[in-house]
Amino acid sequence: MEQSQEQLQEKINESKYILQHDRPNCIGCAACEAVAPEFWEMNQDGKSDIKNGKSLDNGWQELLIAEKRFQENKDAADSCPVNVIHIVKKETGKRLV
């Protein structure tokens, strides 16, 4: 089912954080997928991807997330042995993880 413009705008407005993935340095251990499978999946190339994430020119990925999704993605970031998952506060640009 396709989302309306109003639903999309509401989703953007409630998003407080930017989930970032330094994909080029991912080692593909799948810890993120195990901890937060709603947000993370393994790709055929052996690296993880943010589900529905935006791929950037530098190979990184980003996704806006709401406050209620912060903890599960922080847990995924904390489980990453190479620290390639970051969470940035959208309003200030400050990296929290």
What's the main sheet like?
4 strands, antiparallel
Number of domains: 1
Strand fraction: 25-35%
Average pLDDT figure = 91
Remind me, CATH topology?
A: Alpha-Beta Plaits
Under CATH at level 1, the class stands as Alpha Beta
CATH architecture level-2 label: 2-Layer Sandwich
Cα Rg: 13 Å
Q: Can you list the strand order of the major beta sheet?
A: 4-5-1-6
Instruction: Work out the number of β strands.
Output: 6
Structural class: alpha+beta
Envelope shape: globular
Helix content: 25-40%
Low-confidence stretches: none
Counted by DSSP, the helix tally is: 3
Order of helical and strand elements? HEHEEEEHE
Termini Cα gap: 33 Å
Structural features, described:
With 97 residues, the chain is α+β, with helices and mostly antiparallel strands. It has one domain (5-89): Alpha-Beta Plaits (2-Layer Sandwich). The chain is 26% helix and 27% strand. The chain is built from 3 helices and 6 strands, in the order αβαββββαβ. The chain has helices at 5-14, 31-35, 70-79; strands at 15-21, 40-42, 48-50, 54-55, 61-66, 85-89. The strands form 2 sheets. The protein has a 4-stranded antiparallel sheet with strand order 4-5-1-6. Strands 2-3 form a two-stranded antiparallel ribbon. The longest helix is centred in the N-terminal third of the chain and has 10 residues, at 5-14. It starts with a helix and ends in an 8-residue tail after the last strand. The model has no long low-confidence stretch (mean pLDDT 91).
